[in-house]
Write a structure and sequence with these properties.
Layout lengths: L2 E9 L11 H4 L5 E5 L7 H14 L2 E5 L17 H21 L6 E2 L3 H9 L1 H14 L4 E5 L3 H9 L2 E7 L23 H14 L1 E3 L5 E3 L4 E3 L5 H16 L2 E3 L2 H4 L2
Parallel strand pairs: 1-2, 1-9, 1-10, 2-3, 3-4, 4-5, 5-6, 6-9
Antiparallel strand pairs: 7-8
Helix pairs in contact: 2-3, 3-5, 4-5, 5-6, 7-8
Length: 257
């Protein structure tokens, strides 16, 4: 049997008169969609449209909850308690769930967005607030988080099904965290290097960190971005290379069976 892996992408981030991303094209290339829920991006009309498009394409639908920070696109750190995180995630899950119900679908997974994702990756108590909200909403929903992070630890402790995520275009630190965007070398801009990193981590379970050390990672899903024509071609190449390597692309619910 071939190795299964999910390809996920952040979708539904347009709002009002502002168009962000190329959702119609990306949705044809991925197996799971992380749908913005109105806090860091999106609006009700965009959420409805994105859910319907995901259902039509037969891909997994995930909630992508973030901080209530539309101006900062959810990438600015906020000081919140675990109880507040619980409420924020519950609110956004409820919103997306309504559109899923109308479309005859269910929420497959939750992947926190931006600063919330990275903060919870290092803060166990914050992660517990997020994970408890997911579990109390629906214990069958999959948590998608950074491989080896505190968020994965919290999710497993609470009893959620947990999926480990890999970022092809981001440099890793020795502790398993992503190198901050503000630092030199945080982004992998060479497509060939990015693709080789994906193949390597799926076959060997290791990735070379920014400092040159080898880091062990468990991977169930690869995050890909397709917010411009160049990036879309990159995603297409990833699909071709994975297939050539005998790796099957499938939604998270199938990867974790």
């Amino acid at each position: 049997m071939s190795r299964l892996v999910d390809l996920n992408s952040d979708l539904g981030e347009s709002f009002g008169a502002y168009t962000i991303g190329m959702d119609e094209e990306v949705i044809k290339l991925v197996s799971s969609a992380n749908v913005a829920c109105g806090f860091h991006a999106s609006d009700p009309v965009v959420m409805k449209k994105t859910v319907e498009a995901a259902v039509a394409s037969g891909i997994g639908i995930g909630a992508h909850p973030g901080f209530p920070d539309l101006m900062g696109f959810g990438r600015r750190n906020m000081v919140i308690s675990p109880k507040e995180a619980y409420a924020y995630v519950t609110y956004q899950l409820g919103a997306l769930s309504a559109f899923c119900k109308q479309a005859g679908a269910t929420i497959q997974h939750v992947k926190p967005h931006g600063a919330l994702y990275h903060m919870a990756g290092k803060d166990y108590e914050l992660a517990k607030g997020i994970c408890q909200a997911i579990y109390d909403f629906d214990p069958e929903i999959i948590l998608l988080g950074l491989s080896g992070s505190q968020m994965i630890n919290a999710g497993c402790d609470i009893g959620l099904k947990c999926a480990n995520e890999f970022f092809a275009d981001r440099a890793y630190e020795d502790d398993g965290s992503l190198r901050a965007r503000s630092k030199e070398g945080s982004m992998i801009t060479d497509e060939n290097i990015a693709i080789e990193r994906i193949i390597k981590v799926l076959k060997t379970g290791t990735v070379t960190t920014y400092s040159g050390n080898e880091l062990s990672l468990k991977i169930d899903s690869v995050c890909v971005h397709g917010d411009n024509v160049h990036a879309l071609e990159f995603v297409r190449i990833i699909r071709e290379r994975l297939t050539a390597e005998g790796i099957t692309i499938a939604p998270l619910k199938e990867v974790l069976k």
